[in-house]
Amino acid sequence: MEAHVVGRRIEDVWCSNLRLREPLSKRRLRTLKGRQILSCERRAKYLLLHLEGARTLLVHLGMSGNLLVTDERQKHDHVIFHLDDGAPLVYHDPRRFGIVLALTATQLKNCVWLQGLGVEPLSADFDVDLLAAACKGRQRPIKTLLLDGHVVVGVGNIYASEALFAAAIRPTTAARRISRPRLERLVDAIRTTLQQAIDHGGTTIRDYAGSGTGGYFQRQLAVYGREAEPCRTCGAKIKSIVQSGRSTFYCTQCQR
Ligand SMILES: [Zn+2]
Questions:
Q1: Rounded to the nearest whole angstrom, what is the distance from the C-alpha of residue 224 to the centroid of ligand 1?
Q2: 64, 82, 114 - which closes a domain
Q3: Cα–Cα distance measured from residue 120 to residue 127, given in angstroms and rounded to the nearest whole number
Q4: Whole-prediction pTM value?
Q5: Mean pLDDT computed over every residue of the chain
Q6: What digits encode the pLDDT tens for the residues 200-241?
Q7: What confidence score (pLDDT) does residue 213 get?
Q8: Full residue range of the structural domain in which residue 133 is found
Q9: N-to-C CA span, the chain
Q10: What distance in angstroms lies between residue 129's CA and the mean position of ligand 1's atoms?
């Protein structure tokens, strides 16, 4: 995004009248007209494009959204930002679970979507002190705690299972029962798992329509989606259970 849009000015905005997760506001999106895009940032799953005059474009891709810099028009294009140079920036979303909002500084500060988010897992803020404090006295299973996003963001269902395998911690263990050295291992495992996934272009999702290089991490998954297959470490059968409505995979031998 940075390479393609920073420094460019929004000359015009078009939007469909269809509802995404929130209704699109043509009026608010048009307040971005004439403003230059100064920087791009990501917070959890939210993309933030900061513009001149303290305005921010917040985008969440939902289940099937994409931000594309392209001259091609497709069905399911919902917002088009015409820029002063090169191809337009297009928000495309067949399933319409995404969010596209134009915010003032005050609206950004109070934005409901950004409240209560945990720390970024690859930032220095995510360390054993933070995780230990969050686990203290908590009877919740560690996997559920990781997944809910209040302590740390970005550890999705696949990566939570994978990181817990790498740290040899059983996903059902009550958070309060995990010792500090094991939590330290878990912090490292989360960082390593996410970094490897990023390096390999993520894990394939059904509607993936990005640069065409996604999905390689999938081939290396240790436990996720491998129910009844042999553990790559010990050969025991991988077990699958459901926790808070989400599938969890683990090895009964390696994870205690
Ligand atoms: Zn095993």
A1: 13
A2: 114
A3: 10
A4: 0.84
A5: 92
A6: 876 655 444 444 444 556 668 999 999 999 999 999 999 999
A7: 45
A8: 128-251
A9: 42
A10: 28
Cα of 245 from ligand 1 centre, angstroms: 24
Give the pLDDT score at 220: 82
Q: Find out whether 151 and 118 touch, Cβ atoms under 8 Å.
A: yes
Question: Does residue 76 sit in the same domain as residue 159?
Answer: no
Q: How far is the CA of 251 from the centre of ligand 1 (A)?
A: 5
Domain contains 256: no
C-alpha count within 13 angstroms, C-beta hemisphere, residue 149: 12
Separation of CA 143 and ligand 1 centre (Å): 18
Provide the pLDDT for residue 216: 52
Burial of residue 88 (number of CB atoms within 10 Å: 0-12, 13-18, 19+): buried
Q: Enter the tokens of residue 195.
A: 């970094």
Domain identity same for 199 and 92: no
H and E: helices and strands count for the chain:
7, 10
Residues less than 5 Å from ion ligand 1, measured at CB: 231, 233-234, 236, 251, 253-254
CA of 138 to the centre of ligand 1 (A): 27
Q: Are residues 153 and 221 in the same domain?
A: yes
Q: What is the CATH number of the domain that holds 142?
A: 1.10.8.50
Q: How far is the CA of 18 from the centre of ligand 1 (A)?
A: 48
pLDDT digits (tens, 9 = 90+) for 117-172: 999 999 999 999 999 999 999 999 999 999 999 999 999 999 999 999 999 999 99
Q: Are 211 and 235 found together in one domain?
A: yes
